[in-house]
Amino acid sequence: MGRLQGTPVFDPAGDQIGRVRDVVAGLRLTRRPAVHGFVVEVQPRRRVFLPITRVRRIEAGAVVFTGRLNMRRFEQRATETLVIGEMLDLAVSYDDRQMTVYDVAMEEVRPSTWEITKIALHRGRRRDLRIVDWDEVSGFDTLQKDQGAAGLITAFESLRAADMASALHGLPGKRRIEIARALSDERLADVLEELPPDDQIGIVGTLEPERAAVVLEEMGPDDAADLLHDLPQEQAARLLALMEPDEAAPVRRLLSYPVDSAGGVMTSEPVILPPTSTVAEALAHIRQQDLTPAVAAQVYVTRPPTETPTGTYLGVSHFQRLLREPPSTLLGGVLDPSIDPIKPEFTLHEVTSYLANYNLVAAPVVDEFGRLVGAVTVDDVLDHLLPEDWREGADHDV
Fold it and tell me: In whole angstroms, what is the distance from residue 250 CA to residue 307 CA?
């Protein structure tokens, strides 16, 4: 069932309405577990329940259902188990040996009636996989302190950071922390950036301080600053002290601004080049895969040094203009003279009006000395204007 994670779900008209995030089953003492249905994520990040009786067919790359989908938020009952989130990586007993659940399989035993029938187990190495009947395995009803996470991480590895964050958010707290702790530092940093503040705080609080500091270094300075701002002051100060000085410096600068100002929401790592760089060099920089579309939308031109806070800010060049110019053209000759930078003390309302007036997705932020200190992107602004629980798919009038 691990392969069902992320499978598109289609309604009777053939329109995709969401993706499978988990399978809901009911454990029974003397019989194979009955599959109750799927947890389906619909936009905006709302998890709803699709009863198995509504599923018309399950095929490679698609789940098709019939009837109407109840949009009420899914709530797990005490008698239910999330197959992907809670069964994978369990230590169970088979043939008097302890083994680990790698995956499970379900089967339609009667029309619209599905049961979990097979378990894929491994011991030590994944190459020692063994597929057995459900009835041959015991231990699914045992609460385990350290369940492990390798199987679930494998099921999640192809997901984008935002989708994995959504999947983690839907897991029980204990399981969420187990998975988060098992991720690589870089992957955990990407996922933390997409989680609600309460989940971020809960996960960071379980990490060793040294590792938490490393994960913060992997995050974007603006996201790291937001997270530290939400932590208790003493804990935030300790983590800052453990970070490498070069990594902590931009985070400290961001924390010095009010949280609801341009300085408080900006990124300190936009694309910055000197005026002597060429259009070809600028295009090479904005093609970097790890840049968000908003950050890659324009190149900021300054005098050296080109690390924030930079030398004198000269102007901005939009990527559309770059595409129209010969590759050898110098950036100093393709600046947009109509865009005035904003100040770090601008309020979010002023920043929003600025972006709307100029039809921009990002804006340069320049201090009183004329130095570029960062850039505010439209996604940064939305992240702070939306309700705090918007990532959870709650209903709000926006």
Answer: 10
342 & 209 share domain: no
pLDDT reading at 184 higher than 80: yes
Residue 159: what pLDDT?
79
Cβ neighbour number for residue 260 with a 10 Å cutoff? 13
Question: What is the tens place of the pLDDT at every residue in 250-286?
Answer: 999 999 999 889 999 999 999 999 999 999 999 999 9
Q: Average pLDDT over the chain, rounded to whole? A: 89
The pLDDT tens digits of the residues spanning 129-179 come to: 899 999 999 888 665 556 667 777 777 777 788 888 888 887 888 888 888
The count of structural domains within the chain is: 3
In the chain, the N- to C-terminal Cα span, in Å, equals 36
> Is the same domain home to 110 and 213?
no
- How far apart are alpha carbons 364 and 266 in whole angstroms? 9
User: Do 128 and 17 share a structural domain?
Assistant: yes
On whether both 198 and 322 belong to a single domain, the answer is no
To the nearest whole percent, how much of the chain has pLDDT over 70?
93
Domain that holds residue 229: 160-256
Instruction: Say which CATH number the domain at 248 has.
Output: 1.25.60.10
249 lies in the same domain as 290: no
The residue with greater pLDDT, 184 or 338, is 184
Domain shared by 251 and 317, yes or no: no
Beta strands in the chain (DSSP E): 8-10, 16-26, 34-42, 46-51, 55-59, 62-65, 80-82, 91-94, 97-110, 113-123, 125-133, 137-138, 272-273, 298-302, 313-318, 362-366, 372-377
pTM above 0.85, yes or no: no
| 82 pLDDT above the threshold of 70 | yes
Establish whether the linkage from the previous residue to 305 is cis, with ω within 30° of 0: yes
Q: Which residues lie closer than 8 Å to 36 by C-beta, 6 or more apart?
A: 24, 25, 26, 51, 52, 80
Distance CA 184, CA 163 (A): 17
Task: Calculate the alpha carbon distances from 384 to 71, 135, 222, 380 in Å.
Answer: 26, 51, 12, 7
In contact, 71 and 46? CB cutoff 8 Å: yes
Number of H helices, E strands in the chain: 14, 17
Assess whether 251 and 297 both reside in one domain: no
Asked, for residue 151, whether it belongs to a domain, the answer is no
Q: Are residues 5 and 140 in the same domain?
A: yes
Q: 398 pLDDT exceeds 50? A: no
Q: Which residue, of 74, 109, 144, is where some domain finishes?
A: 144
